[in-house]
Amino acid sequence: QVQLVESGGGLVQAGGSPRLSCAASGRTFSSNAMGWFRQAPGKEREFVAAINWSGGSTYYADSVKGRFTISRDNAKNTVYLQMNSLKSEDTAVYYCAARAYGGIALAIKEWPYWGQGTQVTVSS
User: Fold this and answer.
1) 50: which strand partners?
2) Around Cβ 46, how many Cβ atoms within 10 Å?
3) What is the dihedral of CA 27, 8, 59, 106, to 10 degrees?
4) Any idea what the Cα angle at residue 1 is, between residues 117 and 27, rounded to 5°?
5) What does the pLDDT read at residue 58?
6) What does the mean pLDDT of the chain come to?
7) Phi/psi of residue 29, each to 5°?
8) Roughly how many angstroms between the first and final C-alpha of the chain, as a whole number?
9) How far, in Å, CA of 31 to CA of 92, rounded?
10) Which tens digits make up the pLDDT trace of 43-79?
């Protein structure tokens, strides 16, 4: 069992740079690949970013590449999503996800553990 709790969301201005956090408990955090997904109103959930178990490999969706940075601190059992230059189209519920295998996967079905999400609303 893995429990994930997101934090750091809220109302932010366009161009802002919030940082989302995801605290993990239960299964050994250091063995998990971690990911961020988002779901905007009326749209399907989509992949945003992922990081492998060691932090040595990352992958980003084209829509956020160059603006968002995923990182992890295994000593704190926490993964982060640094969001820069926010746009109105970034408005969504952001979900943290984990998979027991340490490698990155892009498909939603490959991620068995999910947080409940945190709302990010970009004002403009």
Assistant:
1) 35, 59
2) 14
3) 60
4) 95
5) 97
6) 94
7) -65, -40
8) 40
9) 28
10) 999 999 999 988 999 999 999 999 999 999 988 999 9
